[in-house]
Each structure stands twice: as C-alpha cells, then as structure tokens.
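Something for you to look into today, if you have time. I want to see for myself how the chain folds. Leave the record below and I will have a look.
***
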Amino acid sequence: MNQRSVLIIYTGGTIGMLADPRTGALRPMDLAHLEEQVPELDRMNVRLGSRSFETPIDSSDMRPADWVRIARIIGEQYNAYDGFVVLHGSDTMAYTASALSYLLEGLNKPVILTGSQLPIGTIRTDAKENLITAIEVAAGCDEQGRATVPEVAVYFEYSLYRGNRTVKVHAERFEAFRSPNYPRLAEAGVHLKYDRSAILPYREGALKVHDRMNDQVGVIRLFPGIRAEWIQHALSTPGLRAVVLTTFGSGNGPTDAVFIAALRETRERGITLVNATQCFGGQVEQGRYTTSQAFVDLGVLSAKDMTVEAAVTKLMFLLGQGLGADALAEAFCASICGEVTP
C-alpha cells in the first residue's frame, strides 16, 4: 500500500510545550523537531507535514475565528494529505471539534483532535501515546484507500470519540473526555478496534469549507434561586441572536411567572432559545413534566441529546449562514453530521 500522509496542525496547548532546561518555564515546541521528542514517529511509515499557528494560543483563548482558521488550513491542504491531526488544548477541544464538524461540509478524511494533560517533554506524559495513535487513526484506510474514520473526532487516552459528541469531564486524569450519548468510534489497546457501525459513512464529493460563524450566542445556566431580573438583563444584551438555556434533568426549569415572561419577551424579539440539559448523559424531553411545558408553548428549541458544546457551535454556524428564524429552527433540530440522534 502506498505510504499515507498526515498533516499535523499545532494551535497551542499543553501537548506542544517543552520545559526550558534552565528556568523550567514552559515554551511552545518547534514542530520541526517533533521527532526528537517522539522518535517512534520515524517508524510509522507515514509521511508527516506540519503547520503551526504563528503564535500558539491557549485553548481558553480560542475563538470562532480560530475555528475558521483551522478549517481553512485543512481546506488548503486537503488534496495533499490523507488525514489531519489537530494539536489543541484540552479545555475547549470539544467546542473546536464540534465547530469543525459543521465547517467542513462533505468531509471524507479524518480530522483527529488530540492533546495531553502533561507536556510532551515530561517523563510521565500522555502526549506521546495520544499523538502516535491520533496519527495512526488519521492515516487509517480500507482496501480501497478510503479513510477508516471520515469525520472529525477526538482521541484521548485510548478512546476515539465523535468530535461533536465529546465533553471534557476531568481536569487532571488522563481520561479527560467522555461521549455520554454516543458510543466510542474506536478503542486502542493491543489493536485499534473500530466500531464501524458508529462511524459516519464515507461521503463522496468535494469538501466545502465554510468560513462564517456568528458569535452573538449566549449561554445561561439555570440554578435554584436564579433571579429573574438577572436573566432579563442577560437576555437584553445588544445584538444577541440566540441563547442556550442549560436546564435541569430532562429539560426542566422554573415556573416563576417573571422568568417565563422574560423568555416570552425574548422570543417576541426574534431571539432563538434552545433548551439543553445540564446533565452529561440523557436528553431533553420538553413537555414531559409541567416544569418544561412552558418551553414548548414558547417555541423553545430542544437540543435533544446534543452536548452544550455542540449546541452552542451549531447555533454560531447556522447564524453565520444567514438563515432566517424558521430555517434556523429546522436546521438546528436536524442532524448535520451526527451531533444529535434523529
């Protein structure tokens, strides 16, 4: 089989940091010297290329414009490589993975995001295994040369997840991510075991890279005792186009009259409201209890079993396409690339 090729895109994050031997301070690594830190790469029979952000950024500073930037790099190099590995800080990796899944329409090559909890130069680092296996997944193909995982995915600590189904669940453990409402795409052990039934089918046709996201989206996390006037203030933010309400259980919220009135006034101003559960697992079932019936009456959209990360970035993407309220509502409730169970 011909040698496969993978482009590594370094955006920032712990995985690409090295400790200065004199001061101990962490500094970004030059990807040109990546094989010095991970000599195993030389034995993988994969042609590697690399691109780096001119100034690597912490994932906490990642913005929608940076998601578009990554998507454009993939689009520019799409015909030159069989797969892509995006090195990224773990804190907002699930947001970036979700956004890329929408921005890369018609994707039929692997885009694997990975990172680490410890820098690559640390003795106990998880970076080497994450990087090596992410490259192996990105280079994987069948007998016809078609990608094994033709979608955006996150690889961390022996598990491969659909990108727009992931959430970060731990700040310290190497097993930092979970996919609460969708099975793993693959598990790495002695062998890489793929769940073919969980992976998106191979898509024929050309890649279309979208380059617009609208960040006029808010998130309001409900909690017992939340003051209605605070919600009113948040919902009156100038330019606001959509809001994700993270609710209790299966999509429940306060029945306080002032709270409901604030939501009604917001809907009358044409702002899209989405109901997403705070729970890691399960889904929104609006109307199951009286505490969510008002959401149904107000035309609040159900995120169903979407993660908050997937819902937020999906709204930004759809608003960026200039959709009207009805078209946006229809598109939000449908599955674009496996982010929600039909």
